[in-house]
């Protein structure tokens, strides 16, 4: 649909933003929706996923045709061998759900889902829908390495479920909906259950009024780390600017030392401020490089490192000079674990080297309280302090 938006104005993927910061959807319209290389890489991985699921469960084609289509996708410049392992994990996850039914369920792949009955012109694409008996599974494959995404309570997944329910409720007596996020590059697959009645209550009470407000460009701007993260207007949004500049008004002088209770909220604000400053700097650089003016700032060449114009030729000259032995020009070092996994593919790597891999504790880092990782402390227990050597 070239004449239409390739994505809905109120897309399911941005629902966590426009349901909170309702005017942001219309504000974003002023900025081009440019697909990053990461997004293109994700699209390629989704195409491979679709091909594999269709081959196994929907419409089996000849082995030669399947291999030909897979080879075409693998010739894409963004393709890497590890993509096969991650998409195989997705196939295994879907297979586990399919084989969990007593009889073959209905399966739809890359299904366009219309949820315009609750969101103006709302539509999206569900990666995989599986229905059997009174249960529907809505599965979303995420190829990014970013923050682990939770399926339970996820607005994007619930809107996909709303579209799937509208499409299939006449044919299937769906009462239970399982939402699944498959995020193999983060080793993070998870699911959540929502009942039809609960979903419909959320759609009527939260989504319908929130979506109408967002469609009209009304309501209050509510900038936050989560709502601003993928917003195209985040760099020059005035509401975000004013919120972050409020940090400068914090009273840091009374008493002389900050308490732990004061440090917590200040750290959160400083984190948001740092992200905003980085976004603003990126925007300003693009502006001056394109010929625009940002008073007080200009683009200059950054730090550069010397290099040989032609390394092979330089090394040949050195070797011929006799001043340095040729073997002294090279350093032999082992590939990293990640590089070897990339060369082998995740499946082969696991089969060959699973028992050779250890994961030592990571360096302590500060994280928000809602982070799902277990808290750690370097404080020793009384038992450890007094145990005998």
Automatic annotation (TrEMBL):
Domain of life: Bacteria
InterPro entries: DUF2800 (IPR021229), PDDEXK-like_dom_sf (IPR011604)
Pfam families given in the database record: DUF2800
Keywords, alphabetical: Hydrolase
GO MF annotation, one: hydrolase activity
Annotated region (Disordered), positions in chain: 359-389
Protein name per UniProt: DUF2800 domain-containing protein
């Amino acid at each position: 649909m070239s004449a239409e938006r390739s994505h809905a104005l109120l897309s399911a993927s941005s629902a966590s933003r426009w349901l909170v910061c309702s005017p942001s959807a219309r504000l974003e319209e002023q900025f081009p929706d440019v697909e990053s290389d990461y997004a293109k890489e994700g699209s390629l991985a989704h195409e491979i996923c679709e091909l594999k699921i269709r081959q196994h469960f929907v419409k089996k084609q000849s082995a030669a045709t399947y291999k030909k289509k897979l080879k075409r996708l693998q010739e894409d410049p963004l393709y890497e061998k590890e993509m096969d392992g991650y998409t195989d994990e997705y196939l295994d996850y879907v297979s586990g759900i399919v084989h969990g039914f007593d009889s073959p369920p209905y399966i739809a792949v890359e299904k366009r889902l219309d949820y315009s009955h609750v969101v103006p012109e709302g539509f999206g694409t569900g990666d995989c829908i599986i229905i059997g008996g009174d249960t529907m599974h809505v599965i979303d494959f995420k190829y990014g390495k970013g923050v682990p995404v939770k399926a339970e309570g996820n607005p994007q997944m619930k809107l996909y479920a709303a579209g799937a329910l509208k499409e299939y409720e006449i044919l299937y007596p769906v009462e239970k909906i399982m939402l699944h996020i498959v995020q193999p590059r983060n080793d993070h697959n998870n699911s959540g259950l929502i009942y039809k009645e609960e979903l419909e209550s959320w759609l009527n009470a939260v989504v319908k009024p929130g979506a109408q407000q967002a469609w009209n460009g009304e309501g209050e701007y509510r900038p936050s780390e989560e709502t601003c993260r993928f917003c195209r207007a985040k760099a020059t949004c005035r509401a975000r600017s004013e919120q972050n500049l409020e940090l400068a008004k914090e009273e840091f002088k009374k008493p002389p030392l900050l308490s732990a209770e004061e440090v917590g909220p200040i750290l959160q604000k400083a984190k948001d401020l740092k992200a905003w400053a980085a976004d603003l700097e990126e925007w300003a650089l693009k502006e001056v490089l394109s010929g625009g003016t940002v008073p007080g700032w200009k683009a200059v060449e950054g730090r550069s490192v010397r290099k040989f114009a032609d390394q092979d030729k330089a090394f040949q000259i050195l070797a011929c000079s006799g001043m340095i032995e040729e073997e002294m020009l090279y350093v032999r070092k082992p590939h990293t674990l990640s590089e070897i996994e990339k060369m082998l593919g995740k499946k082969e790597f696991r089969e060959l080297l699973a028992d050779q891999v250890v994961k030592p504790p990571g360096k302590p880092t500060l994280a928000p309280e809602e982070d799902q990782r277990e808290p750690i402390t370097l404080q020793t227990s009384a038992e450890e302090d007094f145990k005998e050597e």
